[in-house]
Specification:
The structure holds 2 protein chains of 2 kinds. Chain A is an alpha/beta fold. Chain A is 41% helix and 20% strand. In chain A, the strands form 3 sheets. A 7-stranded mixed β-sheet of chain A has the order 3-2-4-5-7-6-12, sandwiched between helices. By secondary structure, chain B is α/β, with parallel strands linked by helices. Chain B has one domain: Thiamin diphosphate (ThDP)-binding fold, Pyr/PP domains (Rossmann fold, 3-Layer(aba) Sandwich), CATH 3.40.50. The relative contact order of chain B is 0.17. Classes of the chains: A alpha/beta, B alpha/beta. At the A-B interface, α4 and α6 of A face α5 and α6 of B.
Chain lengths: 317, 279
């Protein structure tokens, strides 16, 4: 993928992947709730108008319709902002896609705080928790454009409901064509021995920056890209705990219920080690630029690096 | 429809009512009122209108049914039992631990259940998805839905009603079970919901008003829906909650409670007498 610019929003990669997927698989259909220009499903809509369903501003109805399409053998990608996909339509996702074990794929764009200027009403900091708790739901937060494209294809091949969270803002492209995303598998993007930073989404590149900062201090940090929040890669977490003895989790989400919780559930049950969680600390966001908000809510590379130091200090205490 | 066919459908509807009473009574809980009110619609759909095959419940070209008011599960199960999708004796396992017959319909448990329902207001959206898929695949499938009148207080019903029209789903038909009662009392008192026909007409639907206990009228409505192109059809089915069991008729309290053993016996005796008579 030599033509991929250095920074790409994962939502753009989602839209691009859908078009490619649509070429390959005639059963793929896409639904959107009046946000196709933002969720980037407009490319699919243009290319396959007969397989694109504009549902209007009715997310609950969209999820139910997707369930009916899935029950009839289609592979629907129901697309809207993360806040509406997980919050507004929670009951529909739970009752039909979830309980029905239906092959509904939820393309949730504009995840997290970096939605920015729209403010707290549009900043989904609870979606991973909401989706993770639904039995049988797979939850994926890709780190970059390459991984997003692969996650879309992996979701289409996976039998059952999948939630894919993408972001609004451009993020660095971390992977190249040789990268192979697999649902439920963490990828070591940097090896290290003193501490492991487990991150998802845009926090993966922040964690790599944090690892650089730590390296300057003589701390060797491993960075795990935990793109699948559910099912969490238990072995990778246990291995990190055993080999590095301290863990930092980093996510653009509440520290309650998301990646940090999922990691702590594993360490707490299987191999207790100090875990520091980077995430939104049980507050709502506000308007601002993504950078301003990342600083305000302590989601920067510096914050991750400091958390790593704290985690290491706690070893054995 | 011949006189004999009409009588046969009426007999089937009574047997569905027997199944409802027997299953809810054995369960000790459940929703008899709104199950009894749709028995005649269910009999007509499954034994005259819909193309389904109990031997091959996933037959791709089949017609589909969604019980949006999922608490009428006893009516759906009793109908599926009559039609041969599940054994009749299984009805007595309704709501019991380990049974396929969950308190509300579960598509992964029971052959012939096309969509899991129970949280109200969601069935029409799913049915729209099925109708869209049928159109995409150029299948002859027609999709039928029953919505409760109380259920129509859910906003998603109206979101979905807009979708059905926008997508020109003429392979879709809805019956509104207009029995006028919900858990807390009459629908009008709980949240005034008057003239549903006018409401759905304003949304662009082809709307009919029928006696929901008249199998001939139900059948004619289905024929009219089939002949209507370019838009979905909704039949406002005027029904009586608890229909067919005298002490349950038009009593809101029978929305969600099981009859005592004596009450069930009385109801069964009455229905069986009807079946034995010239009906």
């Amino acid at each position: 993928m030599t033509d991929v610019p250095q920074k790409t929003a994962t939502r753009a990669a989602y839209g691009k992947a859908l078009v490619r997927l649509g070429e390959e698989n005639p059963d793929v259909v896409v639904l959107d709730a009046d946000l196709s220009k933002s969720t980037k499903t407009d490319g699919f809509a243009k290319r396959f108008p007969e397989r694109f369903f504009q549902m209007g501003i009715a997310e609950a109805d969209m999820m139910g319709t997707a369930a009916g399409l899935a029950a009839s053998g289609k592979i629907p990608f129901a697309s809207t902002f993360a806040i509406f996909a997980s919050g507004r339509a929670f009951d529909q996702v739970r009752q039909t896609a979830g309980y029905g074990k239906l092959n509904v794929k939820i393309g949730a764009s504009h995840g997290g705080i970096t939605v920015g200027e729209d403010g707290a009403s549009h900043q989904s900091i609870e979606d991973l928790a909401l989706m993770r708790v639904i039995p049988g739901m797979t939850v994926i937060v890709p780190a970059d454009a390459i991984e997003t494209e692969q996650a879309v294809f992996a979701a289409a091949c996976h039998e059952g409901p999948v939630y894919i969270r993408t972001g609004r803002s451009p993020v660095p492209v971390l992977f190249n064509e040789s990268y192979e995303f697999e649902i439920g598998k963490a990828a070591t993007v940097r090896d290290g021995k003193d501490v492991t930073i487990i991150a998802c989404g845009i926090m993966v590149s922040k964690s790599l920056e944090a690892a650089e900062i730590l390296a300057e201090k003589g701390i060797s940090a491993r960075v795990l890209n935990m793109a699948t929040i559910k099912p969490i890669h238990v072995d990778a977490v246990v291995k990190a705990a055993k080999e590095t003895g301290a863990i930092v989790t980093a996510e653009e989400h509440s520290i309650i219920g998301g990646l940090g919780s999922a990691v702590c559930e594993v360490t707490g049950a299987m191999c207790p080690v100090p875990v520091e969680r980077i995430g939104i600390r049980d507050v709502f966001g506000q308007s601002g630029t993504p950078d301003e908000l990342m600083k305000e809510y302590s989601l920067t590379a510096d914050d991750i690096a400091q958390a790593a130091v704290r985690a290491i200090e706690r070893i054995g205490t | 429809m011949t006189k004999e066919e009409t009588k046969e459908l009426e007999r089937i509807a009574q047997r569905i009512r027997l199944g409802i009473i027997r299953s809810v009574s054995a369960a000790g809980s459940g929703h008899p009122g709104g199950s009894l009110s749709v028995a005649d619609i269910m009999a007509t759909l499954y034994f005259k209108v819909m193309r389904v095959d109990p031997e091959n419940p996933k037959w791709p070209d089949r017609d589909k049914f969604v019980m949006s008011k999922g608490h009428a599960a006893p009516a759906l199960y009793a109908t599926l039992a009559e039609a041969g999708f599940i054994p009749r004796e299984e009805l007595l396992t309704l709501r019991k631990f380990g049974s396929r017959l969950q308190g509300h319909p579960s598509m992964n448990h029971v052959p012939g259940v096309e969509m899991s329902t129970g949280s109200l207001g969601q069935g029409l959206s799913a049915a729209n998805g099925m109708a869209l898929a049928a159109k995409l695949d150029k299948r002859p499938t027609r999709v039928y839905v029953i919505i409760g009148d109380g259920e129509a207080q859910e906003g998603q019903v109206w979101e979905a009603s807009m979708t059905s029209v926008h997508q020109k789903l003429d392979n879709l038909m809805v019956f509104l079970d207009y029995n006028g009662l919900q858990i807390d009392g009459s629908v009008v008192d709980v949240k005034s919901f008057t003239d549903p026909a006018a409401r759905w007409r304003a949304f662009g639907w082809h709307v009919l008003e029928i006696d929901g206990h008249d199998v001939q009228a139900i059948h004619s409505a289905c024929e009219e829906a089939k002949a209507t192109s370019g838009r979905p059809t909704l039949a406002v089915a005027h029904t009586v909650k608890g229909k067919g069991v005298s002490f349950m008729e038009n009593v809101a309290d029978w929305h969600g409670k099981a009859p005592s053993k004596e009450q069930a016996e009385e109801a069964i005796k009455h229905i069986e007498a009807l079946l034995d008579s010239a009906l």
